[in-house]
Write a structure and sequence with these properties.
This protein is of the alpha/beta class and about 250 residues long. It has seven helices and seven strands. The chain is globular.
Length: about 250
């Protein structure tokens, strides 16, 4: 069992499906009490919560749009009242879409940045004061290799993830003296539901760029997140760990 998570409260945004679900399951497996946040797909979140409980863990689902300040405030208040103060935060909720530069509108730009950048800011600001006061806590932001390697069809998404990486590093410096760590994980191509929306040609071309020659699994990303949250990573902060098969 990974050290440092037993009995602690972990809030995972976008925790119902894909990488978020895998993170919730991995943290619960270490003994963490997991708050599974979702925005729309209550059914997926319920499945994640039920699977954790059937395995003997503790989890509760919470609906909230992480891009809405009032909903984030309410979310963190409810988690604190029902499970306890948030010890670990995983900013996983995200929105991505392949959009050629000529088709990118300001509305779509704002939608992506609201979820991918405003969301992590709001949730981090909602939990940081408690963590700083207690002198402990760890945060992991889910970035992407798209924030490291430019893609002309992901100007909005790549920009949001590059900014999230820098947000991680600056928060890490700001919070370090108080014992609060902030890191990020940058997944590459990972086999989630979103991969099924990509055409076979695009998928094959993407895999061809990966030195390991395959897509990653959500559980592989979750393992990296679990490590960075844990006390085993107690002297690691401000880092971006690429989980991309050697690509990023």
């Amino acid at each position: 069992m990974t050290a440092g998570l037993e009995g602690r409260v972990a809030l995972v945004t976008g925790g119902g499906r894909g990488i978020g679900r895998a993170i919730c399951l991995a943290l619960a497996d270490t003994g963490a009490r997991v708050a599974v946040n979702y925005r729309i797909d209550a059914e997926a979140a319920d499945r994640t919560v039920d699977d954790i409980r059937r395995a003997g863990g503790e989890a509760v689902g919470y609906r909230a749009d992480v891009g809405d300040p009032e909903q984030v405030t309410t979310l963190v208040a409810r988690v604190t009242d029902e499970l306890g103060p948030v010890d670990h935060l995983v900013n996983n909720a995200g929105f991505s879409r392949l959009t050629p530069a000529g088709d990118l509108s300001f509305a779509e730009w704002r939608k992506v940045l609201t979820v991918n950048l405003d969301g992590p800011f709001l949730t981090t600001w909602a939990v940081k004061d408690g963590m700083l006061a207690r002198g402990r806590g760890s945060i992991v932001n889910i970035a992407s290799v798209a924030g490291i390697e430019p893609n002309p069809d992901q100007i909005h998404y790549g920009t949001s993830k590059a900014a999230l990486i820098f947000f991680t590093r600056t928060c890490a410096v700001a919070f370090a003296a108080a014992g609060v760590r902030v890191n990020c994980v940058a997944p590459g191509l990972t086999r989630t539901d979103r991969v099924g929306t990509v055409t076979p040609d695009v998928l094959a071309a993407t895999v061809a760029k990966i030195p390991m020659g395959r897509a990653g699994q959500p559980e592989e990303v979750a393992a990296a997140v679990r490590f960075l949250l844990s006390d085993e990573a107690g002297y690691i902060t401000g880092e971006c760990l690429s989980v991309s098969g050697g690509r990023g």
